[in-house]
Amino acid sequence: MLSADERFERRARRVRYRIRTEAGGRPRLTVFRSSRHIYGQIIDDAQGRTLAAASTLDKELKGQLKTGADKEAAKRVGLLLAQRAKAAGIEAVVFDRGGYRYHGRVQALAEGAREGGLVF
Predict the structure, then answer these.
(1) Which domain does 44 fall in, by range?
(2) Are 75 and 108 in contact (CB under 8 A)?
């Protein structure tokens, strides 16, 4: 029987494989969720570079948020990430939820990025 960590890694690999086959050269918006914060990055897999990043630890957000672990904070991170992506000239991405379900904070970050103008 697989441990919880092994099941999570298996789900993440499955999601990334599918994204890689359907990406069409678009960068990948990936999410990491901890118990206290949420992080988002836009990664160009062809070059192996991070093009834009945002998290609840950024100085622009940290003072304005009550906590980094709620849906409102995740939405604000998505908006900030979309703003930084636009500044870097990125319009369209593919969403990589990793091993997380598309629910709660992960969904809020995605919706914030869409509101900010990213297409996925």
Answers:
(1) 4-115
(2) yes
Query: What are the pLDDT digits (tens) for 55-90?
Result: 999 999 988 999 999 999 999 999 999 999 999 999
Q: Calculate the CA dihedral of residues 74, 111, 48, 19 and round it to 10 degrees.
A: 130
Dist. CA 52–CA 73, nearest whole Å: 18
Q: Which two tokens stand for residue 28?
A: 């990948």
pTM (predicted TM-score):
0.93
Q: How does pLDDT run across 12-31, given as a tens digit for each residue?
A: 999 999 998 888 889 999 99
Give the count of domains, the chain. 1
DSSP 119: B
Give a yes or no: residue 120 inside a domain.
Answer: no
CATH of the domain at 82: 3.30.420.100
Going 95 to 98 to 99 to 105, the CA torsion angle's sign is negative
Angstrom distances, CA of residue 106 to CA of 2, 46, 55, 100 = 24, 25, 12, 7
